[in-house]
Write a structure and sequence with these properties.
248 residues; alpha/beta; 5 helices; 10 strands; 17% strand
Length: 248
Amino acid sequence: MAFRGKLIASGADAKTIKGNGDKYETAIMYMQPWKSAGINVCANAEIAGCIDGCLFTAGRGAMNTVQAARAKKTAWFAADRDGFMAQLVVDVTKFIKYCAKQGVIPVIRLNGTSDIRWERIPVSNHNTRYGVPIGSFANIFDMFPQVQWYDYTKIANRKTDHIKNYHLTFSYSTANPLYAKQVKIALDRGMNMAVVWRSVDVIPRMFMGVPVISGDADDLRFLDPDGVMVSLYAKGRAKKDTSGFVQD
């Protein structure tokens, strides 16, 4: 089984599908990353050095048709934010109903290949063109408290601590001294960090004095214990990255 919405989908992503089963099902949204669709949806991508090694080239993301669909979503987000958010509400509503029929908890990751501050985007009562009654909410997380939301981020100072159903894992990199400031902020805040390694053979048991756990068995980062480094091994073009985003 799988869910297909206009913006989010489940069952087609090699990483998130590993966590689907008796308890959870994850839907994910992919956009065209960084500035590749004319809008910067990854604010710190340049200083993090993850542009060339971005995971949007991994798996089905390497297909031209997939890239075109992601570019279309990103252009829609840039040009018609209200319409985009209204469609997202429709997709989430349908996904919740789908998960209820499957007897699983709905989980959604909006930043599959982006780093948008969704906590800043309100969902208001004028988004009604798709026939879904919408009140006024601070963000999509507030509107759907029954959904477990999560993302990876390269913006360490995002104001999300008060959002109990949204979990963020910081993305580590040594590509630029400017990004080291983000790493320090993440450390000071006690955020878990995801570290991309060249291969499974070089992943250590400890990193920066913090225990390392594997993040490749599934993508359910909200289940990770606090105070850990989450190891991921490089995929797609990231295997050849030399920027400092991928660690040796």
